[in-house]
């Protein structure tokens, strides 16, 4: 048993040294934990880039306000909810973390949401997508910052119909998440006056979309909606390019696509793809200036909307902490909701009582290779959805916090 | 590998039992004080996986059956107990029992199908069935698909132990682990366990001695499934969630690694293996993208240097010392 004793004592030493390093941590030091996927599917759109964004927020905040001591740490939740919730508990209980940010993968975000509420700390979800975070799972300790599934489905569905894409065909991943995306988008399309010509469900995950894409092509729908995510979306886009679907006059609409996906696909494959995002680096002078700074520190890569959301969320959090002179999670979140938000990336905005951050949302189309002027010049803006229409109305979310009032 | 299976001389049996008892006491002492030094949720997670690995080892190490689908028992039990606690509002002890019962029930048809084949075919059948269970969990509404079942209430164990208190929860989990562990120890050292080992060594010979080997294998499979379910159900209550991670096939692979790393066919090996893997998962998480690389490198070293597993090597060394 000597091994185990050694193992446990090593573990104990590790735990103690970690404890000693942060022993001074009290209300005086604000500790921010970036919890995301550092090595898996979402490492590109969140991962180390989000850690950098959080550090930049701290830097920019410190330049104006030196009253706080701030520390940023990070960990990899490996997209497993039990690993994520365990790290969150440990951070809150023994490492003195005051705020957790980012948290891609809805199941992990929901688990951390629960832990945060139980411990009375603060959580800003940026890359996590589930609109349940401001719906039935809403919490007085959580703000859902950047985007959510309702916003993407609604923005994409409505704006595309309004800009002429009025007949749809859905390619849906056959599991709860895909069904929900399809259902929400279909409702919006029909409500906005479009029609759905057909739909097909593909197994999750799938590598071969040929028969589904041929059905979509044969439907003659103007828009093929991809109600799936991650590798399924990129595979479907690649194969659609091989079938010449976009060149044949149909457009693909992605319901969950990020800048980093487009970058990985390349313009040749991704051209003509339409989707909704809350942020693009090339929107205005301020976003360009910030993204250039970010890129310089991150190997020339431009930020995804999730990473931009981490910056903006952390900055607003620090402003609230400074105004309150306290890092009590529940109070800070309440203060954040009371203060209007303002930062270079998302402009002026606000946070609703159910924890939903409100800002504009944009419908983008991926450029043709001939239209692109340089690296990372990928999007053209097709429509802007104003902030007040971009997100699900509070009354429809079923958030118990709001109903109680 | 072969020398590990050598039947011990009866003179050694008493010594083995003494050694086991001593090791057990050391282990229990460590677990009793562990929450004072190590973060309790971490130890609870490791205890759940240790029980899972012990249950798996009952089948692999003592029955010689390599199942590559044990995640289905862990995961299904998690879903069953989370559902029982959250939707039916059962107290935690019944929720955990419901989970273990669900896994046991699932173990019967799976076992019946799988034990008809041996070796790689057995592994493939269990893997195929586990994939079916995975897709079932992905599709049916009650599991919540990708999001899993979240915010499972912990409630009061047997009416008065408030599981929201971390210390109480820890000792309840420890008690469940110990009960499972002792049950496995008892099974291995019972006449049933002896027959199981005989089947592992030489199935035709066991048949010729008049044992219905199919019955024994099925019983071992169902017991292993039920105990894996006990681990999964407890885990769901500890983490207050049940998710697809636990039914995914990588979990079946992870438990094989835990068992091999600790020492297949040893009593304490799976416990040590589970703690080693969970420790890595936990403390290497902060290495970010280096996590998977480091884990891989450690496995390569273990496979090259300790082929009998950590505890297997230790036992072999002790035995050599006794002999010499």
Strand content of chain A: 15-25%
By CATH, the superfamily of the largest domain in chain A comes out as: Response regulator
Reported CATH architecture of the largest domain in chain A: 3-Layer(aba) Sandwich
Question: What is Rg of chain B?
Answer: 19 Å
Low-confidence stretches of chain B: 1-6
- Give the averaged pLDDT of chain A, no decimals: 89
Oligomer: heterodimer
Name of the CATH first level of chain B: Mainly Alpha
Question: Biggest interface and its residues per chain?
Answer: A-B, 47 and 48 residues
The helix content of chain A, as a percent range, equals 40-55%
Percent in helix of chain B: over 70%
Tally of discrete structural domains of chain B: 1
Which outline of chain A best applies?
globular
Number of domains of chain A: 2
Order of strands, main sheet of chain B, comes to 1-2
CATH structural fold name of the largest domain in chain A: Rossmann fold
Task: Flag low-confidence runs of chain A.
Answer: 10-26
Q: Tell me the total number of β-strands of chain B.
A: 2
What does this structure look like?
The complex is a heterodimer of chains A (about 400) and B (about 325). In chain A, the strands form 4 sheets. In chain A, strands 2-1-3-4-5 form a 5-stranded parallel sheet, sandwiched between helices. Chain A has a 4-stranded parallel sheet with strand order 7-6-8-9, with helices on both faces. A 3-stranded antiparallel sheet of chain A has the order 10-14-15. Chain A contains 16 helices and 15 strands. The longest helix of chain A is centred in the N-terminal third of the chain and has 20 residues. In chain A, β12 and β13 form a beta hairpin. The N and C termini of chain A lie far apart (about 60 Å). Chain A has about 400 residues and is of the alpha/beta class. Chain B has a single domain, classed as ABC transporter involved in vitamin B12 uptake, BtuC, CATH 1.10.3470. Chain B is about 75% helix and about 0% strand. Chain B contains 13 helices and 2 strands, in the order αααααββαααααααα. In chain B, α2 packs across α11 and α3 packs antiparallel against α4. The radius of gyration of chain B is 19 Å and the shape is globular. Chains A and B meet through α1, β2, α3 and α4 of A and α1, α2, α11 and α13 of B.
